[in-house]
Specification:
CATH architecture: Alpha-Beta Barrel
Order of helices and strands: EHEHEHHEHEHEHEHHEHH
Shape: globular
CATH class: Alpha Beta
Structural class: alpha/beta
Distance between the termini: 19 Å
Number of strands: 8
Length: 249
């Protein structure tokens, strides 16, 4: 069986795709596996419903830190209650994490509290976590080190020192199509091959000026393979094998 392209983090329930979804899904269904991330309970319900009878579209339950930061505490509790009651129905946990950009101390503390509680629920339910980190990587490391969860750092924000620590903690690293523009070649070159994942974060982080889709993954694989001096098919196989090992072993 042919190895699939793996998009470990995308938002295909975003309104940007409404008019093109049928055509896009038809193009993805045979050669791609896409983890479709949610940011709140409304999106999570839509994602779960949309994934029915679509084997390539893997539904992920999420509660984005930016959502948590702007909620009243009691509303965040309601969101977490939905998360707790429904996590078992989803393939993985995404998008969750910490985002400190533009936040005050109260918002950051609320994000941290709920992130720890989400990690606990993920551990209990044996779900892989795809983690968002913006200006918060050390606190993300502190949080995940306290739980027995498999975790992937989406659109990895760190430097080589952060990469070394992430791998010491047993974390996996996801490179996005945005890296083609970010030019973080030295990070890409040093990620352990058995820790590497690929993503688009569609509809954002496009490698060009258009709306991003998982169909841009071949461009990303070409870019990574040129930096790492390896064959594109070998890289594709490595990422696919990582996916099978992390999510199914």
């Amino acid at each position: 069986m042919e190895d699939k392209f793996i998009d470990v983090h995308a938002h295909l329930s975003d309104p940007s795709f409404t008019d093109r979804k049928k055509e896009l899904f038809s193009m993805l269904k045979d050669s791609y596996l896409v983890l479709n991330a949610g940011e709140n309970s409304v999106q999570d319900r839509k994602i779960l419903d949309e994934s029915r009878n679509l084997s390539f579209l893997l539904p992920c339950i999420g509660l984005h830190p930016n959502e948590i930061a702007r909620m009243a505490y009691e509303d965040a509790e309601k969101e977490l209650a939905y998360f707790s009651q429904n996590i078992a129905d989803f393939f993985a946990v995404s998008e969750v994490g910490l985002d400190y950009r533009g936040k005050d101390t109260y918002q950051m503390e609320q994000e941290k509290e709920f992130f720890y509680r989400i990690l606990e629920l993920s551990e209990i339910n044996k779900k892989v976590c795809i983690i968002h980190s913006r200006k918060a990587i050390e606190d993300v490391f502190d949080a995940v080190s306290g739980f027995k969860v498999k975790a992937i750092l989406h659109n990895f924000e760190g430097n080589l020192r952060n990469l070394k620590k992430a791998e010491e903690l047993g974390l996996y690293i996801s490179v996005s199509t945005g890296f083609i523009r970010f030019k973080k070649d030295n990070v890409i070159k040093n990620i352990a091959l058995d820790r590497l994942f690929t993503e688009t974060d569609s509809p954002v982080l496009s490698p060009d000026s258009g709306i991003n889709t998982p169909l841009n993954l071949p461009k990303l694989l070409n870019y990574i393979s040129s930096i790492r001096n390896m064959g594109v098919n070998d890289l594709k196989s490595a990422v696919y094998n990582n996916f099978k090992r992390v999510f199914y072993d």
